[in-house]
Write a structure and sequence with these properties.
The chain is extended, with a radius of gyration of 25 Å. It has one helix and six strands; from the N terminus they run ββββββα. By secondary structure, the protein is mainly beta. The longest helix has 16 residues. The chain has two domains: 35 residues, no CATH class; 64 residues.
Length: 122
């Protein structure tokens, strides 16, 4: 990489500002990438799939599909909002299936008064 390349930003690490120079402290130069070009880092396409609120805790849950242009990776984004706190994570299709299957097995084993097909049990 050429230090004169306009795509490369430069910065300098300096000795500690307080207490003078420490033994072994010296200036170092490093390069970090500059801003990406217009086609370099395209934003993923995000589609909301469903959104609901948990009755007991009041958390807002939103499930989104995230499709990354670079590589076409599809992920399920789980967004949980509890007042001002957000928990957001992305899972791959295999993990989403395993999670959904475990939740379905647990849900089906609970006495909710509603059958798996949506009919009210009696």
């Amino acid at each position: 990489m050429d230090a004169q390349d306009p795509g490369i930003a430069q910065y300098s690490l300096r000795p500690a500002a307080f207490g003078g120079e420490r033994q072994g402290a010296h200036s170092q130069f490093a390069t970090i990438p500059g801003p990406p070009g217009p086609d370099e880092h395209a934003m993923p396409k995000i589609t909301s799939l469903t959104r609901f609120q948990v009755p007991l805790g009041g958390q807002d849950i939103e499930l989104q599909e995230v499709v990354h242009d670079a590589g076409g990776m599809h992920l399920l984004r789980v967004r949980i909002r509890e007042k001002t706190r957000f928990t957001i994570f992305d899972v791959d299709p295999l993990t989403a299936r395993r999670w959904a299957d475990a939740m379905r097995r647990w849900s089906d084993s609970q006495p909710t008064g509603v059958e798996a097909d949506g009919r009210t049990g009696g």
